[in-house]
Amino acid sequence: xxxxxxxxxxxxxxxxxLVRHPLIDLLSAVSSQGSISGGxxxxxxxxxxxxxxxxxxxxxxxxxxxxxEKGQSARLTxxxxxxxxxxxxxxxxxxxxxxxxxxxxxxxxxxxxxxxVHVLTLYASHDEALLAxxxxxxxxxxxxxxxxxxxxxxxxxxxxxxxxxxxxxxAGFHTLVGADxxxxxxRAYKPLLQPGLHKLIGFAQRSQGLMVPRGxxxxxxxxxxxxxxxxxxxxxxKGSGTRVVLDExxxxxxxxxxxxxxxxxxxxxxxxxxxxxxxxxxxxxLGIAAAAEAAGLDFxxxxxxxxxxxxxxxxxxxxxxxxLLQTLQGRDWQDQIARISGYRAQDSGRVLSMRGVLPWWNxxxxxxxxx
Length: 371
Fold this sequence. Notes:
With 371 residues, this protein is α/β, with parallel strands linked by helices. It has helices spanning 22-33, 36-43, 47-61, 78-113, 128-139, 156-164, 184-189, 223-228, 241-253, 270-278, 289-294, 319-329, 331-338, 354-357, and strands spanning 66-67, 75-76, 117-124, 146-153, 170-176, 198-212, 233-236, 266-267, 284-288, 298-312, 343-345, 351-352. The strands form two sheets. Strands 3, 4, 5, 6, 7, 8, 9, 10, 11 and 12 form a ten-stranded mixed beta sheet that branches. A two-stranded antiparallel ribbon has the order 1-2. Strand 1 and strand 2 (75-76) form a beta hairpin.
């Protein structure tokens, strides 16, 4: 079985979208003209080139493609005829999908060729407001400039590591409001951030809490209730910001992850936790209000947290980041985020003091973050 590989080219012309193998063009030209020399003239190629390509493909495919008989025109073999038939069938069936794929690729490349649009790669902890921001920035330019956010959702810790390793320009992570020195939050993030190297940018405040079925049938009001009633609890993967928040809240209650069943039900995102509860697989899970609302669940708020954006100081003046800051400071965006359940804009688009926002910071004993 021979495998197919698809390729595309960039061009200024407006020719139809085609996914077509060059061998098909050779066979069609030689068959219609009755000779290699005639086919070569039609294709504006040399006889030697066409002959060589036909022989190469016969070797590659393990079958003869043309029949040459003295005094007769060149004809396709049965195998060559079936190749042409397969091509016609594929083109007839796939033409709409090919055109749609071409249109999508052209939209992507339009960003690359548009000097007024900036692309900003962002690794971040999963967040509903970031999805809304991506759509908002795509459709509403700031002045004469637009912004395309290339968002890759990952855990908060992994997002900052990606920034430090140069895999993105900006990272998104979140911390509990009031997390102090010697907290789990400090241990998770402090080794990754360094004053003078990183710049913190305000984004939003949001609520974290229990996502429970409508009516909250188990009357769960906090994590201790969950542990006492043996409720099936959907937790988050290690390395995610919400897992750090959960461990922080458990520590405040004098509980451990094992009191909630450990990692028996471990999900990769707020939406996945909400779905686990909505489907009846779990009785509760920790997540954001917006995810609970989208899944038709009730929400029991437990804590507020700040969602931060962070970039390297050296990148702060890049056009993409400056356009993002202006977008975040705009009234249109701040009105939009206020309509997302459990969210409100807080210092949105402002460059902030790391020590002022992260009260557990201590400059004098900070070790260098990995570059």
